[in-house]
Amino acid sequence: MKTTEHLDGIGALAALYDVFLLDQFGVLHDGTSPYPGAVEALSALKRAGKTVVLISNSGKRAEPNEHRLLKLGFEAGSWDHFVSSGEVAWRSFHDMVAHGSLRPGTKCLLISRDDDRSAIEGLPFKLARSGDDAELVLISASEGDRYDLDHYRRLLAPAAARRVPCFCTNPDKIMLTAVGPRFGAGRLADLYESLGGSVTRIGKPYLPIFTAALALAGDPDRGTVVCVGDSVEHDIAGGLGAGVATALVLSGILADTTDLAGLFDGLDAYPDYTIDLFRFR
């Protein structure tokens, strides 16, 4: 078991690494407002000449995520690239249609928030009315702050029973909401499997999203890269799998966790660093 070093701020990492792969939810903001010092810290990294790639398990494409950050008060130009699991999935679906492995007009049951359809805009899908006529299921988000799992069980069961292929573009099992942590899209993917269906998960901790992020950063030497996030299961395990250093921020979903060592042991994923809050110093 390796030793984890606790740091006072992100500035200590800036002295050690050139490329930052940063999570957004739980690190930069909680979905409604930035964490104290986060706006300034992100801008400070860019002023220090660092390459900053935001890498998020958001089922939305990159552009709406970037618009949200600007609305929250983050400075334009304080990151170089944004890679979301929704963007990776959209491009994958686009390629599948282009190569004939996915039929135009496929009926897609889209699970999202606030009836958001941006995950499939520009793709030749038709929205399925229910799980009964779906030919593909896309879980891009959860409304676990509004509905219980039984709601989703009723929605997904007919498709799962017919073994309709399902894609989950946000593997996070817990999400931060205005009313506290609730079950995320990753939990809905687990539910779909428990109902008899199969799921392809796109996003952290799986390697393709890290490969995409590192490619945008110029395929740097892995020793110059650090992945910063608030999830051991997704950010730390994913960063380790990609061969880069990792830093766990304790302001997000782990804010009330008292046994970090037990969590690390249980997931066999040990960060190189921990930080209380994403601030520069």
From TrEMBL:
InterPro entries: HAD-like_sf, HAD-SF_hydro_IIA, HAD-SF_hydro_IIA_hyp3, HAD_sf
Native source organism of the sequence: Mesorhizobium sanjuanii
NCBIfam families in UniProt: HAD-SF-IIA-hyp4
Name of the protein described by the UniProt record: TIGR01459 family HAD-type hydrolase
Keywords: Hydrolase
GO annotation, cellular component aspect: cytoplasm
Pfam families reported for this sequence: Hydrolase_6, Hydrolase_like
Keyword Hydrolase (UniProt): yes
Keyword Metal-binding on entry: no
Molecular function in Gene Ontology: phosphatase activity
